[in-house]
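sry for the spam today, last one i promise. struct tokens for design, 92 residues
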């Protein structure tokens, strides 16, 4: 299998995992949701280069902190980790 085929396969797996994350059979914890968010953003956007939200935006700060925690992870690595994490959550 060529690299381009592998990349397409992983892209389709990532999209399937993103769809599956929206239909989990239980409500994930806040930490699990933040990890899903951070890996998704890293996989789709890359490193967080935005300013940290203000003092009163607690949810925004938590999401910003989670995304920044995976900084320097490659987009392909973030996709692979996201797929594996969604698979883990589906077993719960």
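last one done:
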């Amino acid at each position: 299998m060529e690299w381009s085929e592998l990349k397409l396969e992983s892209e389709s797996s990532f999209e399937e995992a993103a769809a599956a994350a929206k239909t989990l059979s239980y409500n994930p914890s806040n930490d699990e949701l933040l990890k899903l968010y951070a890996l998704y953003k890293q996989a789709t956007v890359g490193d967080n280069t935005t300013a940290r939200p203000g003092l009163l935006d607690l949810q925004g700060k938590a999401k910003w902190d989670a995304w920044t925690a995976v900084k320097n992870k490659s987009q392909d690595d973030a996709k692979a980790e996201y797929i594996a994490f969604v698979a883990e959550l589906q077993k719960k």
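The mean pLDDT is 90. ok im logging off now
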